[in-house]
């Protein structure tokens, strides 16, 4: 065989060719092997082309949907540690009908009658044993993650991103905005790793202490890098700082509903106010504003506080948002109810008529509201579309309950409230899974359940929410408030309360709800 024929044979049999993994996109489009020099490779320089490098992330579920191998999985097999919980744990996520023989409502003490602070009324046991001290933070390489941190990153991508939204498509900012930013900015990276370790400590109780210490270390590093990045900007904020604030806020909410979560909300509001249009990334600004506006509207509805976040990007007011589960118009109505329900006795006589007309106008908006489904791609699962529609109806019914009780002093035995609670029970019972966005609706509805059977149902729903990791901290606190409200209202049923002029919401709910997160 001649040399030329041997060479031809090698080509036909697939002679191994070394490919460039980190080359520029120009060489990749031209199907040339890139020499990988920065900022311009030798091939682009020689051909007088504009060399450009870009980070492209490909998700495993996208490759699976396209029917192709993910990454280099088609060339060789690797043994990878799978951070996803085992099948038997996943199967336990479904709601099993509980046995109610152990439920009872006789734990009433004098502390259930007096005192306004929830911390005075309820003894909160720790969600986990916390370490007395946290060791010094450890470092992460600029270009790669260690084995443990890699697992935390995978766990965030495969589990947490999915549970933080109702529709897991390209609109999921926790995946398509947060993760790319984590590759470039240390404050975002460590906040993501902190969230991964915190949720892992809740999923795996046997190693909860070790994982929780890791979570605190990464949170400490994220805060340190965030301070340095803010100080180095010289008054010119960057959008990635807002992403870090979102993740740190999410961490504090999940971690036993720490009241410090509202500090991140206020800081993000201040930063958006001083940022000019040129320095804002539209996608990041929209993602951040939706995240904080939702938590501000839902949470202050319980305590009646003034709004801390007023920055919202332009959105379709009737279209249901894929993350929070209702339209912007309905979210705006919830905020307006809170504003109008603040102590009516503080108004002067001349302002009473204006206040009443605003209530009538708001009632008209609520009765005529129409929520429309957003466009859903072909890759969106049918059960996700159904969950989105059911969630929108659930929040709308809860808004009606909130309106009647906060502005019209309706009580648990009001016929309309009883009818709405029955509808809510039917809707919740048909939900295959609960997410953190359902917490507000369940909280508002359960407050006005007065039949024991209904109360048992809602206790079971709080149990389900506590199995939803992003909602575990707020769900524990919200459940404690609901149980105290039930006790106080039952004890006050036959008494002449000196605060009878206040609405039911002002009398029982608001004194206990300071700092509560409901989203």
UniProtKB/TrEMBL annotation:
One of its GO terms (biological process) is positive regulation of transcription by RNA polymerase II. It holds the Pfam family Zn_clus. It is found in: Nucleus. Keywords: Nucleus. The keyword Glycosyltransferase does not apply. Its main location: nucleus. Transmembrane segments: none annotated. It comes from the Eukaryota. GO terms for molecular function: DNA-binding transcription factor activity, RNA polymerase II-specific; transcription cis-regulatory region binding; zinc ion binding. GO terms for cellular component: nucleus. SMART domains: GAL4. The keyword Nucleus applies. Residues 23-53 form the Zn(2)-C6 fungal-type domain. PANTHER family: LYSINE BIOSYNTHESIS REGULATORY PROTEIN LYS14, TRANSCRIPTIONAL ACTIVATOR PROTEIN UGA3. This is Putative transcriptional regulatory protein. It comes from Lachnellula suecica.
């Amino acid at each position: 065989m001649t040399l030329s024929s041997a060479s031809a044979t090698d080509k036909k049999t697939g002679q191994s060719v070394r490919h460039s993994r980190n080359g520029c996109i120009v060489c990749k489009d031209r199907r040339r092997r890139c020499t990988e020099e920065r900022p311009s490779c030798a091939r682009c320089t020689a051909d007088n082309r504009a060399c450009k490098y870009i980070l492209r992330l490909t998700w495993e579920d996208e490759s699976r949907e396209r029917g192709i191998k993910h990454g280099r999985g088609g060339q060789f097999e690797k043994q990878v540690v799978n951070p996803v919980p085992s099948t038997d744990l996943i199967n336990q996520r479904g709601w099993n009908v509980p046995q109610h023989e152990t439920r009872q409502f006789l734990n009433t003490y004098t502390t259930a009658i007096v005192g306004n602070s929830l911390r005075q009324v309820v003894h909160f046991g720790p969600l986990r044993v916390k370490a007395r001290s946290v060791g010094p933070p450890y470092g992460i390489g600029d270009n790669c993650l260690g084995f443990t941190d890699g697992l935390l990153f995978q766990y965030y991508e495969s589990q947490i991103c999915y549970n933080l939204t109702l529709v897991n498509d390209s609109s999921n900012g926790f995946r398509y905005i947060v993760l790319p930013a984590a590759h470039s900015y240390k404050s975002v990276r460590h906040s993501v790793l902190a969230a991964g370790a915190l949720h892992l400590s809740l999923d795996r109780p046997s190693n909860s202490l070790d994982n929780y210490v890791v979570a605190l270390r990464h949170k400490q590093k994220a805060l340190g890098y965030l301070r340095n990045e803010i100080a180095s900007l010289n008054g010119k904020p960057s959008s990635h700082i807002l992403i870090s604030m979102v993740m740190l806020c999410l961490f504090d909410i999940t971690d036993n509903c720490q009241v410090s979560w509202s500090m991140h909300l206020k800081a993000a509001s201040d930063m958006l106010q001083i940022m000019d249009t040129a320095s804002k990334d539209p996608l990041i600004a929209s993602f951040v504003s939706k995240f904080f506006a939702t938590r501000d509207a839902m949470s202050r509805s319980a305590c009646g506080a003034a709004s801390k976040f007023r920055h919202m990007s332009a959105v379709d007011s009737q279209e249901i948002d894929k993350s929070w589960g209702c339209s912007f118009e309905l979210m705006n109505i919830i905020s307006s109810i809170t504003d109008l329900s603040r102590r009516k006795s503080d108004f002067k006589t001349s302002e009473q008529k204006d206040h009443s007309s605003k209530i009538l106008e708001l009632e008209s908006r609520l009765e005529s509201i129409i929520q429309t489904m957003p466009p859903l791609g072909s890759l969106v699962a049918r059960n996700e579309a159904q969950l989105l529609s059911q969630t929108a109806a659930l929040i709308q019914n809860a808004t009606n309950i909130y309106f009647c009780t906060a502005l019209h002093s309706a009580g648990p035995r009001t016929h309309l409230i009883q009818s709405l609670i029955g509808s809510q029970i039917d809707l919740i019972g048909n939900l295959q899974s609960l997410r953190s966005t359902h917490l507000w609706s369940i909280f508002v509805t359960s407050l006005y359940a007065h039949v024991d059977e209904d109360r048992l149902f809602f206790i079971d729903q709080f149990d389900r929410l506590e199995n939803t990791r992003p909602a575990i901290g707020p769900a524990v606190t919200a459940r404690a408030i609901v149980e105290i409200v039930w006790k106080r209202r039952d004890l006050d049923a036959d008494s002449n309360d000196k605060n009878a002029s206040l609405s039911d919401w002002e009398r029982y709910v608001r004194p206990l709800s300071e700092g509560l997160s409901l989203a």
